[in-house]
Amino acid sequence: MKIAIYPGSFDPITLGHLDIICRAADLFDKVYVCVMVNCEKSHPMFTPQQRLEQIRRSVAHLGNVEAELWSGLLADYAREKGASCLVKGLRSATDFDQEYQMAAINRGLWEQLETVFLPASPAYQHFSSTMAREMIRYGQPLERYVPEPVARELEKK
Ligand code: PNS
Prior knowledge:
By secondary structure, this protein is of the alpha/beta class. It has helices at 15-27, 48-58, 74-81, 93-109, 129-137, 148-156, and strands spanning 3-8, 30-35, 65-69, 85-90, 114-119. It has a five-stranded parallel sheet with strand order 3-2-1-4-5, with helices on both faces. 4'-phosphopantetheine is lined by residues 7-9, 36, 38, 41, 73-74, 102, 105-106.
């Protein structure tokens, strides 16, 4: 059974993230979406629990995808889940530079841990959680940026 982890801070999950999750769910038997702390991003808009619930609602239709919280090292989470692959989406060369380094660090922590890069679909290449937060702050319609259940919930508020 091929198990993969799709990690991130997901503040909030975007349609670009969901696209990568759906594609990973086709490639692997099981995908764990792991909501983590990114120490470089110190003022999140949503709590980890809110982000987790947003993801769970967004992936409810995918039978082989589960979402969880983890506050430790990603390599430890992967080992605990028996996952030999991390999945990362790449939008640009800047993403690649960062992700290439992280892949090396993670492999240094556990040598069996590979990172698989999926290029962002063209429609989502400019998508980011930063942009989604900006749209939320300015009260813009959200269904073009975040999964439909998340857009509905946030627009109600
Ligand atoms: O969505 P993000 O913010 O780009 O995700 C970055 C994240 C959370 C995947 C990264 O910061 C991470 O892996 N944090 C967990 C701590 C860890 O394992 N660090 C070592 C690898 S850099």
